[in-house]
Amino acid sequence: MTRIKGMKLLLIATLIAVIGIGSMVLARATNPIESAMLFNEVLKHIRDDYVDEVDLDKLMTGAIRGMLNTLDPHSQYLTSKQYENLMVSTHGSFGGLGIEIDIRNGWLTVIAPIEGTPAYRAGIRGGDRIVKIEGKSTRGISMTEAVQKLRGPKGTKVTITIQREGEPELIDYTITRDIIKIKSVPFATMLDGDIGYVRIAAFSDNTSRELRDALKKLKEQGMRKLIVDLRRNTGGLLSQAIEVTEQFVKPGQTIVSTRGRRREQNRVYRAGSRARGGDYPLIILVDNQSASASEIVAGAVQDLDRGLVVGLTTFGKGTVQSVMKLSGGGALKLTTAKYYTPSGRNINKEEEPSEESAIIHPDQVDSNHVYYTIGGRKVYGGGGIKPDIKIEPEEMPKIASRLAREGLVFEYAVHYVATHETVKPDFGDDPKLVSDFEDFITEKEFEFTDEEFEEGKDFLLIMLRSEIARKVWGDEAAYQISIEGDSQLQRVIGILEQANSLSDLFALAIDYSQETESQ
Q1: What is the dihedral of CA 149, 150, 154, 159, to 10 degrees?
Q2: Does 234 lie in the same domain as 129?
Q3: Catalytic residue numbers?
Q4: Which residue of 137, 215, 273, 281 is surrounded by the most CB atoms within 10 Å?
Q5: Are 191 and 162 in the same domain?
Q6: Domain residues for 337?
Q7: Over the chain (519 residues), what is each successive 10-residue block's mean pLDDT?
Q8: Are residues 207 and 279 in the same domain?
């Protein structure tokens, strides 16, 4: 029996090694057969001679991840649960209640209900503590466990017990789950004059449709210029990046290309007949967290002279991951190609090879290497999308950062709404708001100096107004207020106010670059 088990283990280990899943030690071998023998030799010694008995499943998972770690940060082994979560994040819907949750002070806490969902209709509020799920305490629960308990098939019910500030008794809610749609375009509005603003938070199944609907409404409201905000957008589906870009460029124009080792990975993606074109002034706002699909959109708009990219150089995640389903329910997410902009720039920001790396990257494109847009403007390689106009965000005052991190702005908003029977639209004009907040955080034994509070007061007022508005009127009201304190966005608005055409916009970019060089 032991021999059969050993032979079975040898066969499994050999097959795994041959198909390329193993540990770094395989780099010493010269061919797949030697690699398989070496891997099996090491595995056998660990199984038979290691000081403690080992979990072979855990050992093999570690070996898989060890090999993938020598490739790049985006090639990963996904457990069945991680694979399921990936499908939820990219396909944009799941069965659940419709609440944003977090762990606050050891308790599962509602950040906000999503409008139109079962939780929203049931009357769940931001700040509610979920102290029980199906009668079992949530004290010390993990986020993963909480999500598993709250999600479920459409039509099934779950009972949650709420502790709400201002209510002496616990409240039970039995809520029927429904399909929850994740909005990838959470906010769109008209700003000053004829400037439209659209926030794209992610690229999931519904992004292009949501954007199309948002743009239609903005145009009906008189939009003649547009800001597309891709800050903190880490990407998503390639198909949606292409469809989003099609809403700004002309049919037949190249949006992005991919290049890999296999012939089928070498593709050029062009705008189809549904592409809408347009020549109104357009700014894509990015930061160093804008990645992947966000960089495809920004790079195409820049290279095709459809508009300007403004903000900070993007993350530089320009690789294609193919997800390969594995036996046992898990999956392999493997980098199989790289993205290139229409001018030929490699979006990916390569890391310096290390001694542990199993691959050697081709010569990195020099960051000063010049490429040209279709109109002849200079753009630069080196990974990521470098903005036409660099605008640094205003640094958050340290006291504001600490208060947000400790959740005290959120807690005060919950307290404020619970202690005010009605909240009027002009509640933020009340001079007592900030002073009451100062008393609140003092009672919470938050340490600060008068100088720190005075320095951060204006920023704190925006944060307070935004969070209270979210509790009372929802996310859109909070967005409207947060725009007021967004110095980076305010500067972008100032640029667009000076441009009545794309040529005006490009002239402003030249002026800004000359101004920067002279400083």
Answers
A1: 100
A2: no
A3: 292, 303, 317
A4: 281
A5: no
A6: 187-352+363-390
A7: 40 39 44 81 87 85 82 81 71 78 84 78 86 93 85 90 90 90 89 94 92 97 97 89 97 96 93 92 94 96 98 90 84 90 91 50 56 95 93 91 85 92 92 95 95 94 94 89 94 95 94 64
A8: yes
